[in-house]
Amino acid sequence: MMNRFERFPEPLGEAELRYLDGEFRIVRPGSFVRCAVTGQAIPLDDLRYWSVDLQEAYATPEAVLTRMQERGRPMP
């Protein structure tokens, strides 16, 4: 039996997520995902930007802009 001060170990490694509108679902547990543009590791607690259409995560708004420009899509 665990008491309230014990914690489960953090899953290590890269997570696999399903990106939805305004939220994401964890498919495979992990502690981070990689930015599709920069390759930077993004801790799940810090993940703020992703594409539902492309199913990609982004580290910064600039990375989102870069990806949209690469695909020839204007930003809203």
From TrEMBL:
A family per Pfam: DUF2093
Annotated InterPro entries: DUF2093
Record protein name field: DUF2093 domain-containing protein
Record organism: Xanthobacter agilis
